[in-house]
Amino acid sequence: xxxxxxxxxxxxxxxxxxxxxxxxxxxxxxxxxxxxxxxxxxxxxxxxxxxxxxxxxxxxxxxxxxxxxxxxxxxxxxxxxxxxxxxxxxxxxxxxxxxxxxxxxxxxxxxxxxxxxxxxxxxxxxxxxxxxxxxxxxxxxxxxxxxxxxxxxxxxxxxxxxxxxxxxxxxxxxxxxxxxxxxxxxxxxxxxxxxxxxxxxxxxxxxxxxxxxxxxxxxxxxxxxxxxxxxxxxxxxxxxxxxxxxxxxxxxxxxxxxxxxxxxxxxxxxxxxxxxxxxxxxxxxxxxxxxxxxx
Length: 295
Fold this sequence. Notes:
CATH superfamily: Aldolase class I
CATH architecture: Alpha-Beta Barrel
Function: Catalyzes the condensation of (S)-aspartate-beta-semialdehyde [(S)-ASA] and pyruvate to 4-hydroxy-tetrahydrodipicolinate (HTPA).
CATH topology: TIM Barrel
Number of strands: 10
Number of domains: 1
Structural class: alpha/beta
Number of helices: 12
Largest sheet: 8 strands, parallel, barrel
Helix content: 40-55%
EC number: 4.3.3.7
Family: Belongs to the DapA family.
Order of helices and strands: EEEHEHEHEHEHHEHEHEHHHH
CATH class: Alpha Beta
Subcellular location: Cytoplasm
Strand content: 5-15%
Subunit structure: Homotetramer; dimer of dimers.
């Protein structure tokens, strides 16, 4: 079976959105794009949940997408976050992303309103029919309160411009069914599960930890694709402790922004209801980064 969405295999980094004094910091955002290009990432994904999309105004959402697309300028692919729990709003954002030059749109499952499986299908079908751009389904029931079942994703795979799924259920059974029964490119949405997912046939990751160690994530993917499982496994275990510490401290993107602040790559500014780590947590995170070799 020929796989759709092969162009999005590899490392996509879910970018944080830098703020300064409450506003989007465009200059800092451009630097983040440059950093990912220098480090060899394959794609960047602005305004996903890592980019604090729920707290951005519609205008800011568009500002971040257009800034990233403009600065990427074909040097790296852009998978813009354009999801919403309103189908009409998701269509509007996806249309904007296409016009801004995005290579693909990442569409989180409609959150809070908990559609039926038919509702999920019709939501994505409507977006696919309205905007001719590669679409990536983002299934993260821990955030959205409802799973898009594997059968529904397999059904969605029949729509030509739905090309991939960001798999964040944590279920290897669900991932196995999607890979076995569809031609979608399956990308890990959990850094710590990337290597196990690739063993099943997954093709890469939409990474949070890639904001700070993109070269290491890319090295793991490359080793696996070359068939060097010992090297891929070694890289997985190196990353695993960092990912575990980051994700166990607080809700994403609080810890990754704190890590970037400690490393001098961001000022750490968040928007409510996201709040910073306390002093003890920040000290523990600094120790984790030191143990990893980043400090």
